[in-house]
Structures are given as structure tokens and as C-alpha cells.
Amino acid sequence: MARPANATQYQRHSLQLISRVLNVRSNASPFTLILDDLNQRAMPLVGELVRRGLSRNSTVVVVSFEATRFHPAVRSIAAYGDETGEQIVQQIRAAMSEAKENLVIVDSLYELISVKNVDMGALFNLVAGEFASSLVGVYHQDTIPDQGAHKAYAPQPLDLFKYMATTVITCKSFAHVLAAKAARERSLPDPTHGLLQSVEGIVQCLDANDHHGVVIEAEFRRKSGRPESETYFLRAARRSDYNAPLADTTFGTLRQEFIMLLDQVPAYRSSEATGPGNATANEMESTFNLGLTDKQKQAREEVVLPYFDAQKGEGAGEGGRILYEMGEEDDFDEEEDEI
């Protein structure tokens, strides 16, 4: 696709990219990797993927290590029990065998390959290759990978997932993004949150998992190898965003796309960004007053500047001369003056 010519076309193009991924369009993204942490969980985004998958009459299969409650139409596979990795793969195959379009979601990729020892390549070939469906996996960035001796020369799980993914989405708290924007506008270093603060006892920061919505940083990888990146804001879904379900459907279709570019969010575009150390764009916080009273302004105008009298001379060469009167502490050297 040619590069968008103006801002309007670029916005339309960027929204179309993320909309194809969220609506689980065919061949939009065979493997979508979602990265989250304690400060912003991926569950709001995963829930939206499930709703949109059901609205298109797709079979939604969730391999669950953490979640326990699902929509009745979701085919859940409880992977936190005694099932082996081979049994989990067989259950995924059985759940997809009766449908044309499938959406497979794994809520913890690390446990799938590290605990259940499921081969990621085999799972990808099963979902994206054999059934031509979409695979979505969540990886918690605050998970400490296993450093066993038998895996010393193997790639880290996160590096493997990023290499295989066709779309990488990073979830961030909206409140933390606003705080970082406020710091940049004041030329301050970006604030750190949670474990990044390196403070003992802090694992989750204030304003984590903002209820207003989630900020997602998406990287779309094309077949040509050229990636495209953009940042979006996904607010919480409302009942009015979807139509009423028909007789033969389990969930209503989407009325209008409500995800938007982060730069289009009014709270982000406003000059008064919320966050620690909040200050308006036209004011600077200081420990002293930069304003002057009328009396102070008059005293400043009466101050005689250095060498001011030299500028009053008339004639050539008078304007640059320096007037200096010797004091008692000055030591006049007649021999140096003659030289």
C-alpha cells in the first residue's frame, strides 16, 4: 500500500490496521502477541477480542491458565489442571474442527510452553496453518523466565514470541501515559511505575489498570518485513456500541469503531495533562516569584550600568573609551605604564 498523503489518510489507514486485528479479519494477523504487566493487564483488550469474535459468529477458544469465568458461547480449555501439553493441543484441535473461522486465545503463553511444554511452532502451524485461523497470546512482562541449565542456549520465551508474532501489542495504563506526557512537557525524566521504580515492596503503582481505558502500542509486521507502529486508546465497551443480537447469533454486531488514535483523545491532547508535578503550558512552577512590583521596576530602571558614561562621549573615538578612577587599593606601576 502506498504511503498516506496527508494526516486524514494516515489516521484512516492506522485505524484500519488495528480494526482488522481487533475484528479478527482473515489473514489480518495470524499470531498476535499481547504484552502486559501488573500496571496494566491485558484483560480489557482480551475481552474486546472475545466480544468481536462472537459478533462475527467465529468460534472463540480460550486456553485458560488464569481466567475461570467466560461467556457461555466461549469454548474454554482449563489448562491449569493436570492436563499435559499434548492433551491441551488435542482439545484445541477438537474445538476448532467444527467451525470455519476460529479465534484461539492463550491467557499465559509462558506457562503454556514452560510448564506444559507445548511446542510453539506446532501450535502456530495447527491454528494458522491447518485451520487458517487467528492465534492470540498474552505474555506477562513481569514474569521471570526459568534459567535452567538445560535451557542455557535456548532463546528466551519472549524473544521467541516476538520473532514469530505478526502483530505485537503492548498495554499501558492511561493514567501513567498522561503522567509521562506531563513530565516530558516540563523537560523532566519520564516517571517509572511499579517494579521499574526499583523500590523494595512496590510491585504495582498507583493509578494502575485505569478504568477509563487502556493504551495500546501496536506494531504491525508486513510480509515485506517493513513494520508499522502506532499508539491507540481503547476505552471500555458500552452496550450501545453493539447491535442487539439476532435470532441465530449469540452476540450483536459492532455498530461503529470506537478505538481511536491516542493523539485524538481529548484528555491527552489538552495542555493540562494530569499527573505528578502537573503544570500548565504557560506557567512554570518555581520556589520564588518571578514577577516585579512597580517599586521594584522603578528601582531597576535607576540602576546605572557599567561603562554607561562612556557612551555619552561625542566625536570620533569617544564612544569606546573606558572611564576608570583609581582607588587607594590600586598599585600604580610607572615602569609598566611606560612600556
Characterization of the model:
This protein has 339 residues and is of the alpha/beta class. It has a single domain, classed as Rossmann fold, CATH 3.40.50.300. Helices cover 28% and strands 16% of the residues. Its main location: cytoplasm.
Helix/strand layout:
Elements: H1 7-22, E1 31-36, H2 43-55, E2 59-64, E3 75-78, H3 85-96, E4 102-106, H4 109-114, H5 120-130, E5 134-140, H6 157-164, E6 167-173, H7 174-185, E7 213-221, E8 227-235, E9 260-261, H8 266-269, H9 294-301, H10 334-338
Parallel strand pairs: 1-5, 1-6, 2-3, 2-4, 4-5
Antiparallel strand pairs: 6-7, 7-8, 8-9
Pathway: tRNA modification; 5-methoxycarbonylmethyl-2-thiouridine-tRNA biosynthesis
InterPro entries: Elp5, P-loop_NTPase
Subcellular location: Cytoplasm; Nucleus
Tell me the count of domains: 1
Number of strands: 9
CATH top level label? Alpha Beta
Tally the helices.
10
**Helix vs. strand class:** alpha/beta
Helix content: 25-40%
Q: For this structure, what is the CATH homologous superfamily?
A: P-loop containing nucleotide triphosphate hydrolases
CATH architecture: 3-Layer(aba) Sandwich
Radius of gyration: 32 Å
Q: What name does CATH use for the topology? A: Rossmann fold
Give the DSSP E fraction (strand runs of 2 or more residues).
15-25%
Organism: Epicoccum nigrum (Soil fungus)
Subcellular location: Cytoplasm; Nucleus
GO biological process, one term: tRNA wobble uridine modification
Pathway: tRNA modification; 5-methoxycarbonylmethyl-2-thiouridine-tRNA biosynthesis
